[in-house]
Amino acid sequence: MLRVAAATTLNGFSCINLCYFSGYGSKHMLSCISSESKFLSSSMGGDIGSSWPNVPRIVLKRGKVQLFHGGNPMVYSGAVDRIIGRPPQSGDSVLVTNGALHPIAWGIYNSVSMFCVRIMQMEDEVLRDASCMLNIEKLLESRISAAKNLRMRLGLPADNTDVYRLVNSEGDRLSGLTVDMLGEFAVVASSAAWVESNRSKIESVIERLTDCRQVFWKPSLAMLKEEGLEVELLQSWQRDSPENSEVGSGIKVVENSIYYKVSLDGQKTGFYADQRESRFLLRSLAKDRTVLDLCCYSGGFSLNAVVGGAIQVTGVDSSLPALELANANKQLNSFNTDSINFVKADITEFMKAAIAAGKSWDLIVLDPPKLAPNKKALRRAMGMYHSLNNLAMRLTKPGGLLMTCSCSGAMTQGGFFLRVLQAAAASSGKKITQLRYAGASADHTIDPAYPEGAYLTNVLLRVL
Questions:
Q1: Which of 152, 153, 216, 154 is nearest to 184 (CA)?
Q2: Residues 96-155: pLDDT tens digits?
Q3: Selection from 228, 12, 267 nearest residue 133 by Cα
């Protein structure tokens, strides 16, 4: 059997076709080349491809192709065998190919990041619609429009809710781009170099599709540093930006008929819409109960408990700005000041003092900040989660409920949280029953091909 490599050029892309012969002759070889050429031409965009003759090709290692065929958008540098064509610069569009140089996708290249390519479109998507191929502006329009339509199917926005996630990075096929709608404002959380370099296009599309009053931009500095950007310049730009004006400090939103003031100087995009469904559930559980809200931030769970008919609510947080926001939200909704109060304290010290004083609550919410920023920190974080939940269980009245959370992706993706909770129950002498296991609200979409997008775990327990 003879193995022959035949070179051809298709739509500007140099391709190599491997054919095997066993007496079939050159006619079969030409047929093979013609068939393969026709397939590549149609699959990678026809005339669009011909206008991009110098697009670099990122060739994947053997055995890595299937991972990306399945939809994973992150091409790690370790998955790359070689680069063909001119050396790409960060921000360049590239083709991702298999070992035979057949394109399976196109994406945006980064020479510094551990994610050397963020895939934008797979081959099958180009087959269905080639108009977005190598055209980031058209792709943004298509993907953000699809994201908007999906939220509308989820009933967002609604008369009683105007704060929600419009774009959830990999979950909406735009890796590194997160967009939250806060009433008539949009807040972009950027965590990828390609998002920064296409800022004007992104803002234009958001404004056009949502009719928002203004787009605020919040770069995720730690992630962008890993993307090779000069964080000092981003920080300087943030300080001097006209967008960080009085408008940004005066935003008000409504979620399930409760009004909130939002501070863009606060966490992430300014509001945790990921807990919306869990906050609403807690409202239905709070009637005639005493409620303790640990790490209360701007008071979301606490305010829902009051609306649900709780007889007494205590919110605890160590951050003074967070508590100022929580108190402002209490006043904004004209709640009875006797039924809800916010306390500045370290939650560990607060719980230890409450145990020593013999206090207990019917319903406790424990929603600490991210304790495991990565897998390396997981072991230490598990000990911290164990300690916090041990104390919270000891403060829960027999038969009471504990809603406990972890926003550490490493904990959620590894499935460790329930094990930690069981160990905490055993060490505190309690018996727990799982009533609910949930993640982020439905507008925080997740692509099953990229499970790393799951980060939040919310577990409701009965404690005996």
A1: 216
A2: 999 999 999 999 999 999 999 999 999 999 988 889 999 999 999 999 999 999 999 999
A3: 12
Contact 69, 104 (CB under 8 A): yes
Amino acid occupying residue 289: R
Q: Which of 11, 49, 12, 10 is nearest to 33 (CA)?
A: 10
CB 87: neighbour CB atoms within 10 A?
A: 9
H or E element at residue 231: helix 231-240
Please say whether the dihedral angle defined by the alpha carbons of residues 377, 380, 382 and 385, taken in this order, is positive or negative.
Answer: negative
Nearest Cα to 41, choosing from 88, 19, 8?
8
> What is the C-alpha to C-alpha distance for residues 130 and 135, in angstroms, rounded to an integer?
10
Q: Which residues contact 396 (CB under 8 A, 6 or more apart)?
A: 360, 361, 362, 364, 402, 430, 463
CA distance 176 to 173: 9
Q: Quick: pLDDT tens for 287-334.
A: 999 999 999 999 999 999 999 999 999 999 999 999 999 999 999 999
Q: How far apart are CA 413 and CA 401, in angstroms?
A: 25
Task: Give the type of residue at 185.
Answer: F
Closest CA to 44 of 135, 112, 130: 130
